[in-house]
Amino acid sequence: MRSIDHFIGGSSFASGDRQGEVFNPSQGEIQATVRLGTTADLQKAIDAAKAAQPAWAATNPQRRARVMFNYKALVEANMEELAELLASEHGKVIADAKGDIQRGLEVIEFACGIPHALKGEYTQGAGPGIDVYSMRQPLGIGAGITPFNFPAMIPMWMFGVAIACGNAFILKPSERDPSVPVRLAELMKEAGLPDGILNVVHGDKEMVDAILDHPDIAAISFVGSSDIAQYIFSRGTALNKRVQAFGGAKNHGIVMPDADLDQVVNDLSGAAFGSAGERCMALPVVVPVGDKTADALREKLIPAINALKVGVSTDPEAHYGPVVNEAHKQRVEQWIQTCADEGGELVVDGRGFTLQGHEKGFFVGPTFFDHVKPTFRSYQEEIFGPVLQMVRAQSFEEAVRLPSEHQYGNGVAIFTRNGHAAREFAARVNVGMVGINVPIPVPVAYHTFGGWKRSGFGDLDQHGPEGVKFWTKVKKITQRWPDGSAGGENAFVIPTMG
Ligand code: NAD
Protein backbone atom coordinates (compact mmCIF):
# COMPACT_ATOMS: atom_id res chain seq x y z
CA MET A 1 0.00 0.00 0.00
CA ARG A 2 1.26 3.49 -0.90
CA SER A 3 2.47 5.50 2.09
CA ILE A 4 2.12 9.28 2.05
CA ASP A 5 5.10 10.71 3.90
CA HIS A 6 6.10 14.10 5.21
CA PHE A 7 8.02 16.48 2.94
CA ILE A 8 10.74 18.20 4.94
CA GLY A 9 13.81 20.13 3.81
CA GLY A 10 13.11 19.29 0.19
CA SER A 11 12.87 15.51 0.68
CA SER A 12 10.34 12.89 1.54
CA PHE A 13 10.55 11.89 5.19
CA ALA A 14 9.04 8.72 6.61
CA SER A 15 8.87 8.27 10.34
CA GLY A 16 6.58 6.91 13.03
CA ASP A 17 4.21 4.00 13.31
CA ARG A 18 0.95 5.86 13.55
CA GLN A 19 -0.84 5.95 10.19
CA GLY A 20 -4.15 7.26 8.94
CA GLU A 21 -6.24 5.72 6.17
CA VAL A 22 -6.80 7.57 2.90
CA PHE A 23 -9.86 6.41 0.98
CA ASN A 24 -10.99 6.52 -2.59
CA PRO A 25 -14.51 7.78 -1.82
CA SER A 26 -15.89 6.71 -5.20
CA GLN A 27 -14.92 3.10 -4.49
CA GLY A 28 -15.25 3.19 -0.71
CA GLU A 29 -11.84 1.56 -0.35
CA ILE A 30 -8.57 2.46 1.35
CA GLN A 31 -6.02 3.43 -1.29
CA ALA A 32 -3.10 4.71 0.80
CA THR A 33 -1.91 5.40 4.32
CA VAL A 34 -0.63 8.70 5.66
CA ARG A 35 1.89 9.32 8.45
CA LEU A 36 0.42 10.84 11.58
CA GLY A 37 3.37 12.86 12.79
CA THR A 38 4.72 13.81 16.21
CA THR A 39 6.42 16.75 17.89
CA ALA A 40 9.76 15.27 16.83
CA ASP A 41 8.68 15.26 13.16
CA LEU A 42 7.59 18.87 13.50
CA GLN A 43 10.95 19.76 15.04
CA LYS A 44 12.70 18.36 11.98
CA ALA A 45 10.58 20.67 9.80
CA ILE A 46 11.27 23.63 12.07
CA ASP A 47 15.02 22.97 11.89
CA ALA A 48 14.86 22.91 8.09
CA ALA A 49 12.76 26.07 7.99
CA LYS A 50 14.98 27.92 10.43
CA ALA A 51 18.11 27.09 8.46
CA ALA A 52 16.64 28.27 5.16
CA GLN A 53 14.51 31.28 6.07
CA PRO A 54 17.09 34.06 6.64
CA ALA A 55 18.60 33.64 3.16
CA TRP A 56 15.15 33.46 1.59
CA ALA A 57 14.07 36.66 3.38
CA ALA A 58 17.27 38.33 2.14
CA THR A 59 16.57 37.26 -1.46
CA ASN A 60 15.18 40.28 -3.25
CA PRO A 61 11.42 40.19 -3.79
CA GLN A 62 11.70 40.08 -7.59
CA ARG A 63 13.69 36.87 -7.38
CA ARG A 64 11.19 35.41 -4.95
CA ALA A 65 8.44 36.37 -7.41
CA ARG A 66 10.28 34.57 -10.22
CA VAL A 67 9.91 31.31 -8.29
CA MET A 68 6.16 31.99 -8.24
CA PHE A 69 6.15 32.56 -12.02
CA ASN A 70 7.96 29.23 -12.54
CA TYR A 71 5.58 27.55 -10.14
CA LYS A 72 2.50 28.76 -11.98
CA ALA A 73 3.81 27.26 -15.23
CA LEU A 74 4.71 23.97 -13.53
CA VAL A 75 1.34 23.54 -11.83
CA GLU A 76 -0.38 24.26 -15.14
CA ALA A 77 1.80 21.67 -16.87
CA ASN A 78 0.84 19.11 -14.19
CA MET A 79 -2.84 20.06 -14.02
CA GLU A 80 -4.25 16.75 -15.29
CA GLU A 81 -2.20 14.59 -12.94
CA LEU A 82 -2.94 16.84 -9.95
CA ALA A 83 -6.67 16.97 -10.68
CA GLU A 84 -6.90 13.17 -10.96
CA LEU A 85 -5.00 12.69 -7.71
CA LEU A 86 -7.16 15.28 -5.97
CA ALA A 87 -10.43 13.78 -7.22
CA SER A 88 -9.34 10.26 -6.27
CA GLU A 89 -8.88 11.24 -2.61
CA HIS A 90 -11.56 13.91 -2.20
CA GLY A 91 -14.28 12.52 -4.46
CA LYS A 92 -15.11 15.75 -6.32
CA VAL A 93 -15.41 15.43 -10.10
CA ILE A 94 -12.32 16.11 -12.22
CA ALA A 95 -13.57 19.43 -13.67
CA ASP A 96 -14.24 20.68 -10.14
CA ALA A 97 -10.83 19.42 -8.97
CA LYS A 98 -9.27 21.57 -11.71
CA GLY A 99 -11.23 24.54 -10.37
CA ASP A 100 -9.83 23.84 -6.89
CA ILE A 101 -6.28 23.98 -8.29
CA GLN A 102 -6.98 26.97 -10.54
CA ARG A 103 -8.42 29.11 -7.72
CA GLY A 104 -5.24 28.42 -5.73
CA LEU A 105 -3.07 29.25 -8.73
CA GLU A 106 -4.76 32.63 -8.95
CA VAL A 107 -3.29 33.44 -5.54
CA ILE A 108 0.11 32.37 -6.89
CA GLU A 109 -0.47 34.87 -9.74
CA PHE A 110 -1.15 37.54 -7.13
CA ALA A 111 2.07 36.50 -5.36
CA CYS A 112 3.97 37.11 -8.61
CA GLY A 113 3.36 40.82 -7.93
CA ILE A 114 4.75 40.67 -4.40
CA PRO A 115 7.49 43.31 -4.92
CA HIS A 116 4.77 45.89 -5.45
CA ALA A 117 2.62 44.63 -2.55
CA LEU A 118 5.55 44.80 -0.10
CA LYS A 119 6.49 48.43 -0.73
CA GLY A 120 6.48 50.53 2.41
CA GLU A 121 5.39 54.11 3.15
CA TYR A 122 7.59 57.19 3.28
CA THR A 123 7.14 60.74 4.55
CA GLN A 124 9.90 63.18 3.92
CA GLY A 125 10.16 66.05 6.40
CA ALA A 126 7.77 64.69 9.02
CA GLY A 127 9.63 67.03 11.43
CA PRO A 128 12.67 69.28 11.10
CA GLY A 129 15.18 67.13 9.23
CA ILE A 130 13.15 64.07 10.08
CA ASP A 131 11.78 61.41 7.72
CA VAL A 132 9.48 58.55 8.64
CA TYR A 133 9.24 55.34 6.69
CA SER A 134 7.95 51.82 7.10
CA MET A 135 8.99 48.43 5.84
CA ARG A 136 7.14 45.12 5.76
CA GLN A 137 9.26 42.27 7.06
CA PRO A 138 8.48 38.55 7.08
CA LEU A 139 7.45 36.96 10.38
CA GLY A 140 9.91 34.04 10.12
CA ILE A 141 8.14 30.69 10.16
CA GLY A 142 4.41 30.44 9.48
CA ALA A 143 2.12 27.41 9.58
CA GLY A 144 -1.06 26.48 7.75
CA ILE A 145 -3.61 23.91 8.91
CA THR A 146 -6.08 23.09 6.15
CA PRO A 147 -9.39 21.23 5.65
CA PHE A 148 -10.15 18.32 3.35
CA ASN A 149 -12.54 20.12 1.05
CA PHE A 150 -10.06 22.26 -0.94
CA PRO A 151 -6.77 20.37 -0.72
CA ALA A 152 -5.11 22.55 -3.40
CA MET A 153 -6.72 25.98 -3.21
CA ILE A 154 -6.54 26.59 0.53
CA PRO A 155 -2.88 25.54 0.97
CA MET A 156 -1.99 27.85 -1.96
CA TRP A 157 -4.00 30.73 -0.42
CA MET A 158 -1.67 30.48 2.51
CA PHE A 159 1.78 29.42 1.34
CA GLY A 160 1.63 31.45 -1.88
CA VAL A 161 1.51 34.73 -0.01
CA ALA A 162 3.52 33.66 3.06
CA ILE A 163 6.47 32.42 1.01
CA ALA A 164 6.45 35.33 -1.43
CA CYS A 165 6.68 37.64 1.61
CA GLY A 166 9.92 35.91 2.67
CA ASN A 167 8.66 33.45 5.28
CA ALA A 168 9.32 29.73 5.61
CA PHE A 169 6.14 27.68 5.79
CA ILE A 170 4.95 24.48 7.43
CA LEU A 171 1.77 23.03 5.96
CA LYS A 172 -0.34 20.52 7.90
CA PRO A 173 -2.93 19.44 5.34
CA SER A 174 -6.04 17.39 6.03
CA GLU A 175 -5.14 13.78 6.71
CA ARG A 176 -8.10 12.74 4.54
CA ASP A 177 -6.63 13.90 1.21
CA PRO A 178 -2.94 14.64 1.78
CA SER A 179 -1.33 13.66 -1.56
CA VAL A 180 -1.91 16.85 -3.55
CA PRO A 181 -0.42 19.13 -0.86
CA VAL A 182 2.77 17.02 -1.03
CA ARG A 183 2.84 17.23 -4.84
CA LEU A 184 2.37 20.99 -4.61
CA ALA A 185 5.40 21.24 -2.34
CA GLU A 186 7.50 19.02 -4.63
CA LEU A 187 6.62 21.28 -7.55
CA MET A 188 7.74 24.33 -5.55
CA LYS A 189 11.16 22.71 -5.21
CA GLU A 190 11.19 22.12 -8.95
CA ALA A 191 10.26 25.77 -9.46
CA GLY A 192 13.43 26.80 -7.64
CA LEU A 193 12.29 27.27 -4.05
CA PRO A 194 15.17 26.56 -1.65
CA ASP A 195 14.79 23.41 0.46
CA GLY A 196 13.24 24.01 3.86
CA ILE A 197 11.07 26.98 2.82
CA LEU A 198 7.98 24.84 2.19
CA ASN A 199 7.54 21.75 4.36
CA VAL A 200 4.54 19.44 4.66
CA VAL A 201 3.91 17.56 7.89
CA HIS A 202 0.99 15.18 8.20
CA GLY A 203 -1.04 14.37 11.25
CA ASP A 204 -4.04 14.90 13.41
CA LYS A 205 -4.62 16.68 16.73
CA GLU A 206 -1.21 15.65 18.06
CA MET A 207 0.57 17.44 15.20
CA VAL A 208 -1.78 20.44 15.36
CA ASP A 209 -1.11 20.86 19.08
CA ALA A 210 2.63 20.60 18.45
CA ILE A 211 2.30 23.43 15.90
CA LEU A 212 0.23 25.54 18.28
CA ASP A 213 2.76 25.17 21.08
CA HIS A 214 5.99 25.53 19.12
CA PRO A 215 7.74 28.77 20.10
CA ASP A 216 9.42 29.17 16.68
CA ILE A 217 6.14 29.38 14.77
CA ALA A 218 5.13 33.03 14.60
CA ALA A 219 1.78 32.78 12.84
CA ILE A 220 -0.90 30.20 12.11
CA SER A 221 -3.52 30.26 9.42
CA PHE A 222 -6.33 27.76 9.90
CA VAL A 223 -9.35 26.77 7.81
CA GLY A 224 -11.75 24.06 8.97
CA SER A 225 -14.76 23.61 11.23
CA SER A 226 -15.73 26.31 13.74
CA ASP A 227 -15.11 24.56 17.05
CA ILE A 228 -11.57 23.68 15.96
CA ALA A 229 -11.10 27.19 14.53
CA GLN A 230 -12.03 28.71 17.88
CA TYR A 231 -9.70 26.31 19.69
CA ILE A 232 -6.80 27.16 17.36
CA PHE A 233 -7.48 30.88 17.71
CA SER A 234 -7.63 30.89 21.52
CA ARG A 235 -4.69 28.57 22.12
CA GLY A 236 -2.52 30.21 19.45
CA THR A 237 -3.19 33.80 20.50
CA ALA A 238 -2.70 32.90 24.19
CA LEU A 239 0.84 31.94 23.15
CA ASN A 240 1.22 35.32 21.43
CA LYS A 241 1.05 33.99 17.90
CA ARG A 242 -0.70 35.78 15.11
CA VAL A 243 -3.73 33.63 14.21
CA GLN A 244 -6.43 33.75 11.57
CA ALA A 245 -8.93 30.88 11.82
CA PHE A 246 -11.83 30.35 9.44
CA GLY A 247 -14.72 28.08 10.34
CA GLY A 248 -17.93 26.53 9.11
CA ALA A 249 -20.81 28.10 7.23
CA LYS A 250 -24.50 28.00 6.44
CA ASN A 251 -24.96 30.30 3.49
CA HIS A 252 -28.39 31.59 2.48
CA GLY A 253 -29.66 32.41 -1.01
CA ILE A 254 -32.41 35.04 -0.85
CA VAL A 255 -34.85 34.90 -3.78
CA MET A 256 -36.87 38.08 -4.28
CA PRO A 257 -40.27 37.91 -6.04
CA ASP A 258 -38.82 39.64 -9.12
CA ALA A 259 -35.87 37.21 -9.55
CA ASP A 260 -35.35 35.26 -12.77
CA LEU A 261 -36.34 31.85 -11.38
CA ASP A 262 -34.80 29.82 -14.20
CA GLN A 263 -31.48 31.48 -13.48
CA VAL A 264 -31.96 30.89 -9.74
CA VAL A 265 -32.66 27.17 -10.26
CA ASN A 266 -29.59 26.87 -12.42
CA ASP A 267 -27.39 28.71 -9.92
CA LEU A 268 -28.84 26.91 -6.89
CA SER A 269 -28.38 23.43 -8.36
CA GLY A 270 -24.66 24.02 -8.73
CA ALA A 271 -24.21 25.99 -5.50
CA ALA A 272 -26.19 23.63 -3.25
CA PHE A 273 -25.13 20.27 -4.73
CA GLY A 274 -21.79 20.90 -6.49
CA SER A 275 -18.91 19.08 -4.78
CA ALA A 276 -21.64 17.16 -2.85
CA GLY A 277 -22.27 20.35 -0.85
CA GLU A 278 -18.82 20.10 0.73
CA ARG A 279 -17.92 23.74 0.18
CA CYS A 280 -17.81 26.44 2.81
CA MET A 281 -19.33 28.74 0.16
CA ALA A 282 -22.08 26.31 -0.86
CA LEU A 283 -25.67 27.60 -0.71
CA PRO A 284 -27.52 25.00 1.42
CA VAL A 285 -30.37 27.35 2.45
CA VAL A 286 -32.75 29.01 0.01
CA VAL A 287 -35.02 31.79 1.26
CA PRO A 288 -37.76 32.76 -1.17
CA VAL A 289 -39.63 35.92 -0.22
CA GLY A 290 -43.40 35.31 -0.20
CA ASP A 291 -45.28 32.02 -0.64
CA LYS A 292 -45.95 32.74 -4.30
CA THR A 293 -42.20 32.93 -5.01
CA ALA A 294 -41.62 29.82 -2.87
CA ASP A 295 -44.26 27.76 -4.68
CA ALA A 296 -43.04 28.79 -8.13
CA LEU A 297 -39.42 28.10 -7.19
CA ARG A 298 -40.27 24.73 -5.67
CA GLU A 299 -42.06 23.68 -8.84
CA LYS A 300 -39.00 24.45 -10.95
CA LEU A 301 -36.48 23.09 -8.43
CA ILE A 302 -37.88 19.58 -8.04
CA PRO A 303 -37.33 18.43 -11.66
CA ALA A 304 -33.90 20.11 -11.71
CA ILE A 305 -32.88 18.23 -8.56
CA ASN A 306 -34.25 14.95 -9.88
CA ALA A 307 -32.21 15.45 -13.04
CA LEU A 308 -28.90 15.74 -11.18
CA LYS A 309 -26.44 12.99 -11.99
CA VAL A 310 -24.37 11.62 -9.13
CA GLY A 311 -21.33 9.64 -10.24
CA VAL A 312 -17.75 8.62 -9.60
CA SER A 313 -15.27 11.48 -9.70
CA THR A 314 -13.91 10.41 -13.11
CA ASP A 315 -17.35 10.42 -14.77
CA PRO A 316 -17.38 13.50 -17.03
CA GLU A 317 -21.19 13.48 -17.05
CA ALA A 318 -21.55 13.53 -13.26
CA HIS A 319 -22.63 16.77 -11.58
CA TYR A 320 -21.11 15.69 -8.29
CA GLY A 321 -19.38 12.74 -6.67
CA PRO A 322 -19.33 11.01 -3.29
CA VAL A 323 -18.81 12.66 0.08
CA VAL A 324 -15.42 12.27 1.67
CA ASN A 325 -15.85 9.17 3.86
CA GLU A 326 -18.33 6.73 5.37
CA ALA A 327 -18.55 8.60 8.68
CA HIS A 328 -19.47 11.81 6.88
CA LYS A 329 -22.04 10.02 4.72
CA GLN A 330 -23.69 8.73 7.88
CA ARG A 331 -23.56 12.16 9.48
CA VAL A 332 -25.26 13.79 6.48
CA GLU A 333 -27.96 11.08 6.43
CA GLN A 334 -28.48 11.58 10.16
CA TRP A 335 -29.04 15.31 9.59
CA ILE A 336 -31.64 14.46 6.94
CA GLN A 337 -33.45 12.36 9.54
CA THR A 338 -33.17 15.15 12.12
CA CYS A 339 -34.63 17.74 9.74
CA ALA A 340 -37.53 15.41 8.93
CA ASP A 341 -38.09 14.72 12.66
CA GLU A 342 -38.08 18.46 13.34
CA GLY A 343 -40.97 18.91 10.93
CA GLY A 344 -39.27 19.76 7.63
CA GLU A 345 -41.10 18.50 4.54
CA LEU A 346 -38.76 15.99 2.88
CA VAL A 347 -39.54 16.62 -0.79
CA VAL A 348 -36.57 14.77 -2.31
CA ASP A 349 -34.80 12.17 -0.17
CA GLY A 350 -31.23 11.29 -1.17
CA ARG A 351 -30.62 8.67 1.48
CA GLY A 352 -29.84 5.09 0.56
CA PHE A 353 -28.41 6.12 -2.80
CA THR A 354 -26.19 3.48 -4.42
CA LEU A 355 -24.35 3.57 -7.69
CA GLN A 356 -24.26 0.38 -9.71
CA GLY A 357 -20.76 -1.05 -9.81
CA HIS A 358 -19.68 1.26 -6.95
CA GLU A 359 -21.92 0.04 -4.18
CA LYS A 360 -19.34 0.77 -1.47
CA GLY A 361 -18.84 4.40 -2.57
CA PHE A 362 -19.82 7.17 -0.15
CA PHE A 363 -22.67 8.61 -2.21
CA VAL A 364 -25.56 10.71 -0.96
CA GLY A 365 -28.31 11.62 -3.41
CA PRO A 366 -29.54 15.21 -3.69
CA THR A 367 -31.97 16.07 -0.92
CA PHE A 368 -34.51 18.88 -0.72
CA PHE A 369 -36.58 20.09 2.23
CA ASP A 370 -39.36 22.67 2.19
CA HIS A 371 -40.93 24.43 5.21
CA VAL A 372 -37.75 24.42 7.29
CA LYS A 373 -37.93 26.74 10.34
CA PRO A 374 -35.16 28.81 11.92
CA THR A 375 -35.76 26.97 15.19
CA PHE A 376 -34.60 23.64 13.69
CA ARG A 377 -31.19 22.39 14.81
CA SER A 378 -30.69 21.09 11.27
CA TYR A 379 -31.01 24.72 10.08
CA GLN A 380 -28.77 26.17 12.75
CA GLU A 381 -25.91 23.73 12.16
CA GLU A 382 -23.76 23.06 9.11
CA ILE A 383 -24.64 19.79 7.32
CA PHE A 384 -21.89 19.95 4.65
CA GLY A 385 -23.66 17.60 2.26
CA PRO A 386 -25.94 17.68 -0.80
CA VAL A 387 -28.93 18.89 1.20
CA LEU A 388 -30.94 22.02 0.31
CA GLN A 389 -33.30 23.50 2.92
CA MET A 390 -36.00 25.98 1.96
CA VAL A 391 -36.96 28.53 4.61
CA ARG A 392 -39.90 30.65 3.52
CA ALA A 393 -39.68 34.34 4.44
CA GLN A 394 -42.72 36.59 4.33
CA SER A 395 -40.86 39.87 3.76
CA PHE A 396 -37.57 41.40 2.68
CA GLU A 397 -36.94 42.36 6.31
CA GLU A 398 -37.26 38.74 7.41
CA ALA A 399 -34.95 37.68 4.59
CA VAL A 400 -32.27 40.12 5.78
CA ARG A 401 -32.72 38.98 9.36
CA LEU A 402 -32.30 35.22 8.79
CA PRO A 403 -28.66 35.18 7.61
CA SER A 404 -27.85 38.15 9.83
CA GLU A 405 -28.94 36.33 12.97
CA HIS A 406 -27.43 32.96 12.03
CA GLN A 407 -24.38 31.86 14.03
CA TYR A 408 -22.36 31.60 10.80
CA GLY A 409 -21.64 34.55 8.51
CA ASN A 410 -19.49 33.28 5.68
CA GLY A 411 -21.38 34.00 2.44
CA VAL A 412 -24.86 35.00 1.32
CA ALA A 413 -26.49 35.69 -2.03
CA ILE A 414 -29.50 37.68 -3.17
CA PHE A 415 -31.28 37.04 -6.46
CA THR A 416 -33.25 40.02 -7.72
CA ARG A 417 -33.70 42.46 -10.59
CA ASN A 418 -34.19 45.32 -8.14
CA GLY A 419 -30.99 47.30 -7.68
CA HIS A 420 -32.31 49.15 -4.65
CA ALA A 421 -33.18 45.92 -2.80
CA ALA A 422 -29.79 44.42 -3.66
CA ARG A 423 -27.96 47.53 -2.50
CA GLU A 424 -29.89 47.67 0.80
CA PHE A 425 -29.31 43.97 1.36
CA ALA A 426 -25.56 44.19 0.74
CA ALA A 427 -25.23 47.13 3.12
CA ARG A 428 -27.31 45.68 5.94
CA VAL A 429 -26.72 41.92 6.03
CA ASN A 430 -24.39 40.74 8.81
CA VAL A 431 -22.31 38.36 6.67
CA GLY A 432 -18.73 38.67 5.36
CA MET A 433 -19.16 37.92 1.63
CA VAL A 434 -22.21 38.88 -0.42
CA GLY A 435 -23.26 37.81 -3.92
CA ILE A 436 -25.74 39.81 -5.97
CA ASN A 437 -27.10 37.37 -8.55
CA VAL A 438 -23.84 35.48 -7.91
CA PRO A 439 -24.45 32.24 -6.01
CA ILE A 440 -20.91 31.59 -4.76
CA PRO A 441 -19.36 34.99 -4.02
CA VAL A 442 -15.75 33.92 -3.47
CA PRO A 443 -13.76 37.11 -4.12
CA VAL A 444 -10.94 36.93 -6.70
CA ALA A 445 -7.38 36.40 -5.50
CA TYR A 446 -6.34 40.07 -5.41
CA HIS A 447 -9.26 40.86 -3.13
CA THR A 448 -9.58 39.01 0.16
CA PHE A 449 -11.63 36.10 1.49
CA GLY A 450 -13.14 35.80 4.94
CA GLY A 451 -16.40 35.25 6.77
CA TRP A 452 -17.81 36.80 9.95
CA LYS A 453 -19.19 35.57 13.27
CA ARG A 454 -18.43 31.86 13.82
CA SER A 455 -17.12 31.60 10.26
CA GLY A 456 -13.99 33.62 11.05
CA PHE A 457 -11.83 34.23 14.12
CA GLY A 458 -9.16 36.92 13.97
CA ASP A 459 -9.12 40.17 12.09
CA LEU A 460 -7.17 39.68 8.86
CA ASP A 461 -8.60 37.81 5.87
CA GLN A 462 -7.02 35.31 3.50
CA HIS A 463 -4.93 36.30 0.46
CA GLY A 464 -4.84 39.60 -1.43
CA PRO A 465 -3.62 42.69 0.47
CA GLU A 466 -4.92 41.32 3.79
CA GLY A 467 -2.84 38.19 3.28
CA VAL A 468 0.27 40.32 2.81
CA LYS A 469 -0.55 42.11 6.08
CA PHE A 470 -1.07 38.81 7.87
CA TRP A 471 2.26 37.33 6.77
CA THR A 472 4.38 40.43 7.47
CA LYS A 473 5.04 42.80 10.32
CA VAL A 474 5.50 46.51 9.83
CA LYS A 475 8.62 48.21 11.07
CA LYS A 476 8.37 51.99 11.46
CA ILE A 477 11.57 54.03 11.17
CA THR A 478 12.02 57.67 12.17
CA GLN A 479 15.33 59.05 10.93
CA ARG A 480 17.30 62.24 11.38
CA TRP A 481 20.70 63.03 9.98
CA PRO A 482 21.92 66.05 12.00
CA ASP A 483 24.20 68.47 10.22
CA GLY A 484 26.44 68.74 13.30
CA SER A 485 25.27 72.17 14.52
CA ALA A 486 24.35 72.06 18.18
CA GLY A 487 20.93 72.90 19.52
CA GLY A 488 17.68 71.11 19.85
CA GLU A 489 14.79 71.06 22.16
CA ASN A 490 14.44 69.92 25.72
CA ALA A 491 14.92 66.12 25.41
CA PHE A 492 12.78 65.46 28.46
CA VAL A 493 9.57 66.45 26.74
CA ILE A 494 7.86 64.04 24.34
CA PRO A 495 8.58 65.30 20.82
CA THR A 496 5.50 66.72 19.12
CA MET A 497 4.83 68.21 15.72
CA GLY A 498 3.10 71.20 17.33
P1 NAD B 1 -11.86 19.91 10.36
O1 NAD B 1 -12.07 21.02 11.32
O2 NAD B 1 -12.27 18.54 10.75
O3 NAD B 1 -10.30 19.79 10.00
C1 NAD B 1 -9.53 20.91 9.62
C2 NAD B 1 -8.10 20.69 10.08
O4 NAD B 1 -8.06 20.62 11.50
C3 NAD B 1 -7.48 19.40 9.55
O5 NAD B 1 -6.16 19.67 9.14
C4 NAD B 1 -7.53 18.47 10.74
O6 NAD B 1 -6.47 17.54 10.76
C5 NAD B 1 -7.44 19.40 11.91
N1 NAD B 1 -8.16 18.91 13.10
C6 NAD B 1 -9.25 18.10 13.11
N2 NAD B 1 -9.63 17.85 14.37
C7 NAD B 1 -8.78 18.51 15.18
C8 NAD B 1 -8.67 18.64 16.60
N3 NAD B 1 -9.53 18.06 17.44
N4 NAD B 1 -7.68 19.41 17.09
C9 NAD B 1 -6.82 20.02 16.26
N5 NAD B 1 -6.88 19.92 14.92
C10 NAD B 1 -7.84 19.18 14.38
O7 NAD B 1 -12.54 20.36 8.98
P2 NAD B 1 -12.75 19.49 7.67
O8 NAD B 1 -13.83 18.50 7.92
O9 NAD B 1 -11.45 19.02 7.12
O10 NAD B 1 -13.30 20.62 6.67
C11 NAD B 1 -14.64 20.98 6.58
C12 NAD B 1 -14.93 22.20 7.42
O11 NAD B 1 -14.11 23.29 6.99
C13 NAD B 1 -16.36 22.69 7.23
O12 NAD B 1 -16.84 23.13 8.49
C14 NAD B 1 -16.21 23.87 6.28
O13 NAD B 1 -17.24 24.83 6.34
C15 NAD B 1 -14.92 24.43 6.74
N6 NAD B 1 -14.32 25.27 5.72
C16 NAD B 1 -14.32 26.61 5.93
C17 NAD B 1 -13.78 27.45 4.98
C18 NAD B 1 -13.75 28.93 5.21
O14 NAD B 1 -13.03 29.59 4.50
N7 NAD B 1 -14.48 29.46 6.16
C19 NAD B 1 -13.23 26.92 3.80
C20 NAD B 1 -13.25 25.53 3.62
C21 NAD B 1 -13.79 24.72 4.60
TrEMBL record:
* GO BP annotations, alphabetical order: L-valine catabolic process; thymine catabolic process
Q: Name residues in a coiled coil.
A: none
* Annotated keywords: NAD, Oxidoreductase
Q: Which Gene3D superfamilies match?
A: Aldehyde Dehydrogenase, Chain A, domain 1 (3.40.605.10), Aldehyde Dehydrogenase, Chain A, domain 2 (3.40.309.10)
Query: What EC number(s) has UniProt assigned to this enzyme?
Result: 1.2.1.27
Domain Aldehyde dehydrogenase, residue spans? 18-477
Q: Name one GO molecular function term.
A: methylmalonate-semialdehyde dehydrogenase (acylating, NAD) activity
Domain of life, per lineage: Bacteria
NCBIfam families xref list: MMSDH (TIGR01722)
What PANTHER family does the database record attribute to this sequence? Answer: MALONATE-SEMIALDEHYDE DEHYDROGENASE
Report what the protein is called. Answer: methylmalonate-semialdehyde dehydrogenase (CoA acylating)
Organism phylogeny = Bacteria, Pseudomonadati, Pseudomonadota, Alphaproteobacteria, Sphingomonadales
